[in-house]
Structure prediction request, 289 residues.
Amino acid sequence: MPAAEKLFGEAAFYLDVIDTIAPIALHHEYTFFADEWFAEWIKSKTYTVERLNFILALELIDKSHLAALTALMRAKRWADATCLMYDNTNLVGWAASVRGLLESAGDTVDGLLNIPLTLAVHRRSIRRCLAGEEREIGVGYSELEAKLDHFVQARWMRTKRGEDNKLKAKENAAYVGILEPVIPGVLKLYHQLCALCHPSQESVEYFYANPGHHGRLKLSPTNDAKEINAICTAYPSALHDALMMSCNSPLYILRVLHKFGVHPKLELLRKLNWKAIEMGAEIEQHLKS
Prediction:
């Protein structure tokens, strides 16, 4: 059985989906306007409300596409690394890869979970803006953009106590903790993986063979497979659920973006069962209205 199917079960099909759609989606070139240009433009004679709304809407859906595609490619990289380390029976490498996948999944859920529904709810407004037909001042999606900006641009930084910076990355465990309702015990698993990756007792203890006679101890470099399988047995659905949660929201974003006619069409997405996904029925209803 291939490693992907053994480790991720039915969720392994997401890897094939990503391989199929990524080459098509990557043909798109994004349009983002520099802050300096924008500040000058809104004071210029060429400024119009319609053009402003067009820029805001275009940047919104381009940010959504960029976030979705990078989330999927990142998930695929972590899943591939997990399979590679499994095939090579490298416990430390496998633990690091699974740890990265869990962090990535939590980050994706934190930043992108509600984006598909929000895009669907505001579909008509966004389309008017893209067509240059929206004349109302103040059309904006600042809360949505803040989520997307955090996902794409967040980084570790020092801040003063009480200071709020939307681009400050959360602690890694905070992202992983978001998965807890779907993957019970995921934080315990995450800390176990961290212990294997960091200098600690766990990162060397798995080399120990059973003590021999008279309290003697031998080292064995062949315990990796046993330890990997023990973790998989203790958390049988964790990898499946982590990959699923890494991919559902980004794929749904790409599905909703079809409605705006700006990004490459991904025909494979039409064949997926979206109603089986959380909020799927609600999103589909908005897209039909």
Observations:
- Residues 8-159+168-288 form one domain.
- The longest helix spans residues 49-87.
- The CA atoms of residues 178 and 238 lie 13 Å apart.
